[in-house]
Design goal:
heterodimer; A: six-stranded mixed β-sheet; 0% helix; B: mainly beta; seven-stranded mixed β-sheet; 52% strand; globular
Chain lengths: 110, 114
């Protein structure tokens, strides 16, 4: 069955330190992976998608099919990065359905 | 992108009543989705609403409890029926634009059932 696992509910990182939010997935087909972010009092929004291979707000994520992972990384954390981060998987060719992980709250310490 | 609004933004309801949530999109979209986000939990897909056809419900969700309407390509409603405290949650609608599987989310409706 399709599943997205984010092992950390809360991650606290000092400002300027590197950030890594872990995400592992389970899917037998070709997945499309996303990271969504929800800042305080804002709606859930797309941060980045693996197919775009882009860096958004300094964040990158590489799909590792061997390890079935899609970890989100940033070399130097900023206070404005504090938010809830959700890893998500789209079933290819399955009516655009998305499965979300349980989310990781990132707290940047001053 | 798409701009999505939801009404109401929050409500407090009595047990046994129903609440209808509206979702309006600023462009025509084929697929609209309804999610539930219970306290401390992730988003769970309730159903997919296509215009002109019956909604498709995920395992654990039934039409009698969560009837959905999709009268046109820019609007949908979700009703949460026969409310119980366990229905207290945030309900979100989202859309996927044609040919793209990125979803855009509404601001959510926070429901509290007493």
């Amino acid at each position: 069955a399709q599943r997205v696992t984010q092992p950390e509910k809360l991650l606290s990182v000092f400002k300027g330190a590197p950030v890594e939010l872990k995400c592992n997935y389970s899917y037998s087909g070709s997945p499309e992976l996303f990271w969504y972010v929800q800042y305080s009092r804002q709606r859930l929004q797309l941060l980045l998608r693996h197919i775009s291979r882009e860096s958004i707000k300094g964040f990158t994520a590489d799909l590792n099919k061997g390890e079935t992972s899609f970890h989100l990384k940033k070399p130097f954390a900023q206070e404005e990065d504090s938010a809830m981060y959700y890893c998500a998987l789209s079933y290819m060719n399955r009516d655009d359905k998305i499965i979300f992980g349980k989310g990781t709250r990132l707290h940047i310490l001053p | 992108s798409a701009v999505i609004s939801q009404k109401p933004s929050r409500d407090i309801c009595q047990r046994g009543t129903s609440l209808t949530i509206q979702c309006q999109v600023d462009s025509q979209v084929t697929m609209m989705f309804w999610y539930r986000q219970q306290p401390g939990q992730s988003l769970t897909l309730i159903a997919t609403a296509n215009q002109g056809s019956e909604a498709t419900y995920e395992s654990g969700f039934v039409i009698d409890k969560f009837p959905i309407s999709r009268p046109n390509l820019t609007f949908s409603t979700l009703t949460v029926s026969n409310l119980s405290p366990e229905d207290s949650s945030i309900y979100l609608c989202s859309v996927a634009l044609a040919g793209r599987d990125t979803q855009y989310f509404g601001p959510g409706t926070r429901l509290t059932v007493l």
